[in-house]
TrEMBL record:
It comes from the Bacteria. PROSITE patterns: S4 (PS50889). This is RNA-binding protein YlmH, contains S4-like domain. Transmembrane segments: none annotated. GO terms for molecular function: RNA binding. The keyword Membrane does not apply. Keywords: RNA-binding. Coiled coil: none annotated. The keyword RNA-binding applies. It holds the Pfam family S4. Residues 186-248 form the RNA-binding S4 domain. InterPro entries: Nucleotide-bd_a/b_plait_sf, RqcP2_RBD, S4_RNA-bd, S4_RNA-bd_sf. It comes from Halarsenatibacter silvermanii.
Amino acid sequence: MSSEKKILSHLQREEDIKLGERILDLAERVQERNNKHTTKFLNPRETKIAEEILAQLADINYLSEGGHDKAERKRVIIFPAYLFPEHQNVPLSCFKIKGNFDFVNVGHGDFLGALTGLGIKRELIGDIIIYRDTAQVVAVPEAEKEILFNLEKVNEVPVEVEKMECDEIIFEEKHRKEIKTSVASQRLDAILSAGFGDSRSNSKAAIEEGRIKLNWVREKNPAAEVSVGDLISVKGRGRLKVVKKRGISNSGRIKLQIDRIT
């Protein structure tokens, strides 16, 4: 087995393998040219894959940043091992988008749609954090002019855009409900049903219709295995996080703690 195949051998999904190959290609270019390279924004699953691969390369170092401490979407800067991570800066720009949304219900998807409607690709946009009447957006610096000068409306509401320091980002505390439950197995449809109180058939249908993401990847298999630490996202309803196993009941069911985040 070649060294590249060995490094990628733990990856099963086609999209994960392709990402791994891209990361190895970038690392090779950094080594050959003795320079730095920064990825586009990666979701948490992709970031984890990139970090695991780069950690195996002796002559390479890396740093992942998303503009704030709670960042989900991050860019990874890859650089020669002799450089120190604390001396590296991941190129990021942050913006405030404000408008009078008193009579219009807007959410994450509306702001994302307005940005991609300008021709900005999703991979160039990081987290979008909504706080009261303001959306705080992290993006690549190359998108700065487009966002500042051409974003005029979100869901037909006129908006003002200004640049901000990324360390000024404010978070609204999410509601988190702790659920103690038991399931016959750790299938996705069983966890989803327990977390939201839906029927098993409704949960299965939602999965098969492509409305559910498991660890940021759309999952259409109701029987997909869910592990402790996994995150399930349901559009318009929130997220479920499997926090821990609490043992086995007398009847043989698996006792879990699940957090519902809305």
